[in-house]
Inverse folding.
């Protein structure tokens, strides 16, 4: 494995961070990373990998849940110098499509004096869209950054995971922030300040 | 040779090294996720002293990209010393286009004012903050203010506002009026005049605050509730310019600076220099509206 040569650590990182910041400050707005010629290993989407590249370095740790964790962790280590850590310690936890595991219960949601000292989940899903599509859940978002109510449709995201995040965020300002990425480089930010609800997956006739 | 590549440019793009930029970026995302909460950050060395706008500069440099159009104001003016020097610095370190025109900028840095023209969804405004801790005037110890924020225990703050009212018949805070953000944190909006404070409420723009000397950054996302602290019977008020008008344009519905001449005579001028130019040349502008300005519209606020 070698470092990605087509990724520009200065300008790509800057461009992607601006999109991340926009997504985080406007929950429900779907941003899209421009295509970058990188080849992440199986089990992590390009969107999730680019989010990692934009934020990780040797100062923070990450944790890969799900399959092929070893190879993905090596990939992130080579490209960002970020070390893998336990889910209860890690600053960034990568969650694959439609996944929830016991280990996530340990994820940090900050302390009363330093609520920012918490985990950010980088969650992969199948598709984020403003239109209903096959097996998608309807997210209704309310809170800072949303003008009234925002609606967005996400498929391939686990209900237990979302319940767990809602639980973690119940004692605001403690909580866990989410960056959701899909297979097509779309990103959606849902910070802890957002009061979101989600529906069962529905089969829409397209 | 490696050295030739590494040292072919004197400075990294946007001055700060990539590793430190990433740290500031991570903290910014957390700050946005917890509106009004002060997040400690590294506050790296800059070629200007801490306390001279480094906090704003850190955020600007962590955000800025090649396609950004940068504007910087100091007390509303594009031409003041602090603004000019920082503009030149950012331009030299990034090669970004700079502008005076508020509507053309994508990234605005400011000291002690919000632009008179309303900022839109595609713009970000960065504040240079001298004192990020609104509770400092009632509590001197950092560990105690941290505790007070953690427990949302703001009784001391309310008592101080009450005491000001009892002593002087009004809440005396002229600039940097404390606000409640998203119903949870009391925040110092940096020393912006009261005129600007209501413009933070449910705005279209992302507001980012950087305090370099105090090593804190915080944020107000767009469409967030920002309410000035007030009592049921003693309400927040903005400056009343009904008895004064800009001497150049006769305009009243803007924040005015007071100018004194050598003979002691006094006149007023619009504080936002770009807005003044636009009014002067009768260009179209789109000002902020809020309920406080609407209240003032009872008097004739247009020209003359």
């Amino acid at each position: 494995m070698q470092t990605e040569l087509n990724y520009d650590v200065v300008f790509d990182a800057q461009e992607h961070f601006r999109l991340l910041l926009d997504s985080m400050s406007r929950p429900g707005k779907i941003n899209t990373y421009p295509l970058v010629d990188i080849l992440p290993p199986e089990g992590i989407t390009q969107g999730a990998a680019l989010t990692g590249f934009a934020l990780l370095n040797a100062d923070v740790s990450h944790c890969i849940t799900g399959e092929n964790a070893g190879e993905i962790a090596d990939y992130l280590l080579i490209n960002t110098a970020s070390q893998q850590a336990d889910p209860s310690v890690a600053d960034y936890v990568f969650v694959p499509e439609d996944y929830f595991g016991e280990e996530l219960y340990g994820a940090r949601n900050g302390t009363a004096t330093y609520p920012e000292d918490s985990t950010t989940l980088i969650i992969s899903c199948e598709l984020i869209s403003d239109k209903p599509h096959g097996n998608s859940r309807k997210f209704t978002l309310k809170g800072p950054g949303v003008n009234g109510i925002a609606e967005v449709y996400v498929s391939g995201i686990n209900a237990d995971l979302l319940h767990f995040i809602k639980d973690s965020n119940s004692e605001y300002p403690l909580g866990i922030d989410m960056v959701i990425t899909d297979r097509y480089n779309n990103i959606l930010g849902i910070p802890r300040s957002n009061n979101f609800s989600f529906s069962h997956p529905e089969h829409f006739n397209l | 040779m490696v050295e030739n590549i590494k040292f072919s440019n004197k400075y990294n793009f946007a001055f700060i090294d990539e590793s430190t930029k990433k740290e500031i970026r991570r903290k910014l995302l957390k700050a946005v996720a917890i509106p009004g909460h002060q997040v400690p950050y590294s506050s790296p060395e800059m070629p200007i002293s801490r306390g001279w706008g480094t906090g704003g500069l850190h955020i600007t440099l962590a955000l800025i990209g090649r396609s950004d159009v940068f504007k910087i104001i100091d007390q509303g003016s594009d031409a003041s010393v602090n603004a000019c020097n920082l503009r030149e610095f950012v331009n030299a370190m990034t090669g970004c286009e700079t502008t005076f025109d508020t509507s053309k900028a994508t990234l605005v840095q400011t000291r002690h004012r919000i632009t008179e023209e309303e900022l839109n969804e595609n713009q970000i405004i960065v504040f240079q903050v001298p004192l990020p801790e609104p509770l400092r005037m009632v509590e001197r110890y950092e560990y105690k203010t941290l505790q007070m924020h953690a427990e949302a225990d703001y009784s001391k703050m309310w008592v101080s506002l009450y005491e000001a009212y009892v002593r002087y018949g009004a809440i005396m805070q002229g600039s940097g009026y404390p606000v409640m953000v998203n119903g949870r944190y009391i925040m110092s909006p940096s020393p912006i005049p009261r005129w600007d404070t209501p413009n933070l409420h449910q705005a279209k723009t992302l507001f980012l605050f950087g305090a370099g000397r105090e090593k804190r950054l915080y944020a107000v996302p767009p469409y967030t509730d920002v309410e000035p602290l007030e009592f049921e019977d003693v309400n927040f008020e903005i400056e009343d310019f009904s008895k004064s008008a800009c001497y150049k344009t006769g305009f009243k519905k803007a924040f005015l600076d007071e100018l004194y001449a050598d003979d002691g005579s006094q006149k007023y001028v619009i504080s936002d220099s770009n807005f003044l130019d636009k009014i002067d040349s009768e260009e179209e502008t789109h000002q902020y509206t809020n309920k406080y300005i609407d209240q003032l519209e009872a008097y004739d606020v247009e020209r003359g």
In short: Chain B touches chain A through 43 residues (CB under 8 Å). Chain B has a mean pLDDT of 93. Chain B is about 25% helix and 15% strand.
